[in-house]
Design brief:
mainly alpha, disordered C terminus, Growth Hormone, Chain: A
């Protein structure tokens, strides 16, 4: 019998196959097979601690360390404060020196710090470790986005960003199950210790396999390098010259994207950090079943992210594949609130829809900035946007936990996440491409050029 899940997997595989064939039609397809598997695994490992912390909290870490409910919410969110403050400095280093080396050192430090969570006995030490992990991981996302912008063109960038960020839901997908079994078998301490070690080993694979740009790659021919660099040069034609980060950060579109991502991230990380606890509160399932249920929204997210990036790059429209998904997520959160605890499975299905829809637009979203700002400042602008996402993540992780604790139910947090996503929808719709006349325009792009996607 042909089951719906099998059909979804086959459809996803067909889209991926077509995409790889399409991407190789013009420029070197070896970029995808060489770089993306390594980038995907690297981001997956870096993302691990953001999600396994929530399972550790649900599995008794708070009880063992005598962590109060308010302290637990603060610990869940503290990571994002370190992440917020070090985004732009990390982007500056990655763009001016080496994204490759920055990520190499971050992987090693992250692995050490993540494993140390498993041996702490003092909550104050745990506060420090969580903050330090945020600082170290602040390097990963901006450096990755800069690296991808060095390798992939505007017509490929949404797909490249999606394959990077797929490490987020896919990690939660397998981690929710594996971590649940580790917790039930060896306890939450060994779960952190075991899951921190792979990134240290993987750092050396990263160092061996990745190059900062096509010019550094010995596995590309001179002709392939020229084709890629020529395409990058064509993309810069017609963009307003922006001399430095200060001027880039003042652009209206960048400010709007920062606000949008702040509210979007409230919904995402309120969901990521507290979904296991929400399921535990609303049901009587054991930790292994909770782990399996927690994984389901991220399966849907994986499919929707690939589909959204596929059509976003084909149509070269970004906003059209961002705000409708966020609106669906907001409606699903509110509907889940209306259902409440009267019907657990219906409420859970609505949460699955909300989770999948929230993740779908990541690829198109992070493709916007390199298309509206020149290369010299795009990396810093992406880091600034991502830093506001980190601030929103802090608010989402903290206030969802706070509201759940104060009210004794999940209702208030559902409304909080729904309203945040509605605000994100509004700012997505109003954002426009940079049109500041204060700087000299470098040229014009022919109307038929694929390098000038409409910000729609």
């Amino acid at each position: 019998m042909f089951r719906p899940t099998e059909h979804a997997v086959l459809c996803l595989a067909a889209i991926l196959k077509e995409e790889i064939q399409f991407m190789g039609e013009k420029l070197a397809s070896s970029r995808w097979s060489r770089l993306m598997p390594v980038i995907f695994i690297t981001y997956s490992l870096a993302y691990l601690d953001r999600s396994n912390y929530s399972l550790g909290a649900a599995a008794g870490m708070a009880k063992d360390l005598n962590i109060t409910a308010s302290a637990s919410a603060f610990l869940a969110a503290l990571f994002f404060l370190g992440y917020f403050f070090f985004q732009v400095p990390s982007a500056s280093y990655a763009q001016r020196r080496s994204a490759k080396k920055l990520i190499f050192y971050a992987l090693i430090l992250w692995g050490i710090l993540a494993s140390c969570i498993g041996i702490v006995t003092n909550i104050w030490v745990l506060f420090v470790i969580r903050f330090m992990i945020g600082i170290v991981e602040a390097a990963i996302m901006p450096a990755m986005l800069i690296l991808l912008s060095n390798w992939f063109t505007s017509g490929e960038r949404s797909k490249a960003n999606t394959f990077l960020i797929l490490g987020n839901p896919v990690t939660v997908l397998w981690m929710s199950v594996v971590s649940a079994y580790l917790v039930s078998s060896v306890g939450w301490r060994w779960m952190f210790i075991i899951e921190g070690l792979p990134s240290i080993i993987w750092a050396f694979v990263w160092l061996r396999m990745i190059d900062n740009s096509p010019n550094d790659a010995t596995w590309l021919s001179a002709g392939q390098k020229k084709d890629i660099n020529d395409e990058f040069a064509r993309e810069q034609v017609g963009l307003h010259a922006v001399p430095n980060y200060r001027e880039a950060f003042k652009q209206k579109a960048v400010i709007q994207l920062c606000i949008q991502y702040f509210f979007w991230s409230i919904g995402v990380y309120g969901f990521v950090m507290w979904l296991p606890s929400i399921i535990k509160t609303a049901s009587s399932f054991d930790i292994v079943v909770i782990g399996w249920l927690t994984a389901i929204p991220y399966l849907l997210a994986t499919v929707l992210m690939v589909v959204a990036s596929f059509f976003s790059d084909r149509l070269l429209k970004r906003k059209l594949f961002i705000w409708p998904f966020l609106l669906v997520a907001a409606v699903a959160f509110y509907a889940s609130y209306l259902v409440g605890t009267s019907n657990f499975w219906l409420s859970f299905i609505l949460l699955v829809i909300a989770g999948g829809a929230m993740y779908a637009p990541y690829g198109p979203f992070f493709a916007i900035v390199p298309e509206i700002l020149p290369k010299n400042v795009a990396g810093g602008a992406m880091a600034l946007v991502n830093s506001f996402g980190a601030l929103g993540s802090f608010a989402g992780a903290y206030f969802v936990g706070f509201l759940n604790n104060v009210t004794g139910s999940n209702d208030a947090s559902y409304i909080f996440m729904a309203l945040s996503l509605i605000i994100a929808v509004v700012f997505t719709i109003v954002v426009k491409a940079v049109t500041t006349p204060d700087f000299k325009v470098q040229g014009t792009i022919p109307a038929a050029s694929p390098s000038a996607p409409a910000l729609r």
